[in-house]
Amino acid sequence: MKKIVTFGEILMRWSKVGARRIGQGYDWEGHFGGSEANVAVSLAVLGNSVGYISRIPANAVGEACLRELRSYGIDVRDVVRGGNRLGTYYFEEAQGLRRSQVVYDRDGSSFYSSAPGMFPWKDIFSRADVFHCSGITCAVSQSAKDATMEAVQAAKDMGLRITCDINYRKNLWRYPGADAQKSLNELMQYSDFIFGDQDEWQVTTGVPKISEENMYADTVLDMEAYGRYFDMMHAKYPGCRSMMMGLRNQISSTRHTLTAILWHDGKLYKTGIRDIFPIVDPIGVGDAFVAAYIHSSLLWPDDPQRCLDFCVAASALKNSVVGDFNLVTEDEILATL
Description:
The chain is α/β, with parallel strands linked by helices. It has one domain (3-336): Ribokinase (UDP-N-acetylmuramoyl-L-alanine:D-glutamate ligase), CATH 3.40.1190.20. The protein is 35% helix and 23% strand. It has helices at residues 35-45, 60-70, 121-125, 135-140, 142-157, 180-189, 198-205, 223-236, 285-299, 304-318, 330-336; strands at residues 3-7, 11-16, 28-33, 49-53, 55-56, 80-81, 88-92, 101-105, 130-134, 161-165, 193-197, 242-252, 255-264, 267-270, 274-276. The strands form three sheets. Strands 1, 4, 9, 10, 11, 12, 13, 14 and 15 form a nine-stranded mixed β-sheet that branches. Strands 3-2-7-8 form a four-stranded mixed β-sheet. The protein has a two-stranded parallel ribbon with strand order 5-6. Helix 2 links the parallel strand 5 and strand 6. Helix 9 (285-299) runs antiparallel to helix 10.
C-alpha cells in the first residue's frame, strides 16, 4: 500500500451552538480540523496509509489533537512539538440568505513559527510515496512558507508524487512581503495534481474564470471554454499531469449544487451536477475532493472518469457530515454512484 503524507496546521474550529451568530449566546462547540488534516483523515477513513506532519504545542490541547488523529489510524510520529498555542478559527454558520463568516486566530500559533530545518523531510519521505500540501501553509507566515517550499523541493528530489490544493484564503496573506500569486505559482510548479475552485484558479493565474455562478442541476457547462482554459493552465504548469476545478453554487444556506471538471494528460472530463439538499455542514468540501482524487487515482490510475465521479460523490456526501472531517467510506461513496 502506498503511503501518503500531508503537511499543514491543525486547528480548533469554534462555532456557537444552534447556528447562532458569533455574538449570540455563551455555548461554543469545538471540532479539530484544518485543510491538510481533513485530507489526512478522509484518506485514512478510505483505507489508506497516511502520515500527518505539523507543529503543535507540547500541552494537553496538542495531545488531544494527536489522540484524535491516531483514532483514525494516522501516523503522527513526525509531528514536531513547540510553541505555546494551537491555531483556532471561529465559524459562523450560514442561515437562509445570511452568508457564513470565518474569523481566524492563527498569528503566533505553534505552526506559525514553523521553519526550514524543523522537519526531517528526507527521513519522512523515505517512508512515503505521495506528498500533499496546500497554499494555506504558505499564507500563514513567511517561515511556514519557507518550510513548505523546503518540503516540496525534497519531495520532488526524492521522486514523490506531489498533490496541491490552491486553498487561497484572502484573510491569511498578511505578513510583510506576502505575495499570494507568486507563492502559489511557485508551489504549483512542483505539483503533479492541482485542485482549486474557479476563484482560486483566477487569483493564482490571473486568467479570468468561466462564470457558472447560476449553476443548477440541469445547467449545460461550456466544455469548449473549459478546454481552452485548461490548455492555458497546462502551458503555465507543464509538469502537472492532472488539474481539477471544483464548481459550487450556493443557492441558499441549505442547498448547493456541486460538480467538477478534470483535465488529465491532455483530455477533459466532466460529470453530473449534484443538487444537495439539505446542507448539514459545508466545511471541508474541497478537502473531500482532494482526498477522494488521491485515493481514486491510486485505485484506478487508468480511469480518470471514474476518479472524477468518485470525487464529486465524496464531496457531496461531506455536506451531510458535521465537523471538518469527511467520515464516509469507499463503499458509501460507491453506493451513491
